[in-house]
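Q&A log
Question type: sequence-to-structure
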Amino acid sequence: MTHKSLTAGLVALVSLVAFEYIAVAIAMPVVARELGGLHLYGLAFSGAMAAAVVGTVLGGRWADLKGPTAPLWTGVAGFIGGLLLAGLASSMEMLIVGRLVQGFGGSLVSVALYVVVARVYPEESHPKIFSLFATAWVVPSMVGPAIVGLVVDTLGWRWVFLSVPVLTVIAALILLRGLAGQPVMGGQAESAPGLGKKVAWAALTAVGAGLMQYGSDGRLPLLIVGLVVLLVALPRLLPAGTLRAARGLPSVVALRGLAVGAFFAAEVIVPLMLISERGMSPLLAGFALTGGALTWSIASWLQGREVFSRTANLLGGAAAVALGILSMGVVTFDAVPVAFAYPAWIITGFGMGLLYPTLSVLTLELSKPGEQGVNSAALQVGESVFSVVSVAVTSALFVAVGQGYWAVYAATLVMALVGLWVAPRFQTLSVGSEAPVVAHLS
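Response status: OK
Response body:
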């Protein structure tokens, strides 16, 4: 019964963080217009992302040192407080402060939940838990837009922010009940050398990602400066060898970034391409994305029941993502029936559903006691930054070649193919043998 309450609370919190992420993106045009803050529109997103990167790095090490409960409840409080500030904002500046607090709190929650899973659940349960987490992110993407649109049209945009704290309190109470009496929630790391430097590198990484976001609309100098900053700062937050996909944990973090970056950079232009180039209605174009979200959830469910091996999940998932992006790219040509877009994104979503939770499981398996937090933080930071870089670079490419849909799909296909090469590298070679084995360091 305790684990049922714990699982329900964990999944509810993940769902609420995911829902609010989607809801803000949908409501923000109305918010900025009513508050007279269109000139600060981008800062509402980049500021929250910057706070989230810092919070993820800090929260990961905090969870290793003191256990996940302190960062978890601090994060819940920050998430609720930020939402209330944003919902009650009388100016765009106040709303941005709320977004900063919300982003910081939500990131503490996200990384602490990984450590809770590592400490409380037996290892054989991790695939099922992470399949539930994946579904908790996917479902809001399917139902969220309709709910948010209804709330904005009937109650007003403020209730997009003010309604979620009530649900968060309920989820937190369920989680509190589930955590009661758990014996393994204390710290496992003895010290945090260089934590201040890590946080500073995290802040610099957030600045670099923000510069790339702002530079993606054709301001090439900003794009280049942002990329240089990231090349200097980001490696300090990731396992050594991540950018060259070294075997073991570095390849897991690299594959997560490549897969998520390729998926979201391609997905960003799917509706635009289907509507502007192929004449679809917004409703029918949206169904293409919904199909991908559904198969992401289905594949996550299969992963949770370990229908396939870890290697099959990663290789099959990476191959499906590459095939799906290639297929959607083909739809840009008039000779190809536009209906081909549906199976194309169904395949892509299925691949992500195999990959995403499997990489979460492997991150915990490949972490020593006392390092689950910092490694989970690295996984999430890498995913976020790779996504920003991918979207920024492909957006700049799209503009540079004159609405070059094919160019975006070609670039994301290359990323997906690199991911296919990286996929089997989660295994390490045993000493004195050519046979690959799964590195298990815990």
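Response note: Confidence is low (pLDDT under 50) at residues 430-435.
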